[in-house]
Amino acid sequence: MEANFITLLTIFVLAIFIGFEIITKVPPTLHTPLMSGSNAISGITVVGALIAAGAGEGFWSTTLGFLAVALATVNVVGGFLVSHRMLAMFRKKG
């Protein structure tokens, strides 16, 4: 059980580092268009987190699943707000 946890924790930490490196390499001009794609990925994350939270596998599974649902939802809402603001910049005034 402990070896499995250490393996999963290692994969999680490596995913954090790789994700951070990828995001920091994106130029600012591409950041907002890529937000729409990340919204779709975050939607999938919400579904997976709901499954993890509702699986009833234990306290930590439920707690981390709930935390994942909350953070992915914040990401989706923030992405839509940024996309809405970006699209408002291109509307004709008047």
Write a brief caption for the model.
With 94 residues, the chain is mostly helical. The chain contains three helices and no strands. The longest helix has 31 residues.
Based on the model shown, name its key terms.
94 residues, mainly alpha, 3 helices
- The ordered H/E elements are HHH
- How many discrete structural domains? 1
Helix/strand-derived class?
A: mainly alpha
Radius of gyration: 17 Å
What would you call the shape?
elongated
Described by strand count, sense and barrel closure, the largest sheet is: none
Uncertain ranges:
none
Helicity, in percent?
over 70%
Overview of this structure, please?
This protein is an all-alpha fold and 94 residues long. The chain has one domain. It is built from three helices and no strands. The protein has helices spanning 2-24, 28-54, 59-89. α2 packs antiparallel against α3. It is elongated. The N and C termini lie far apart (64 Å).
How are the SSEs ordered, and which strands pair?
Elements: H1 2-24, H2 28-54, H3 59-89
Helix pairs in contact: 2-3
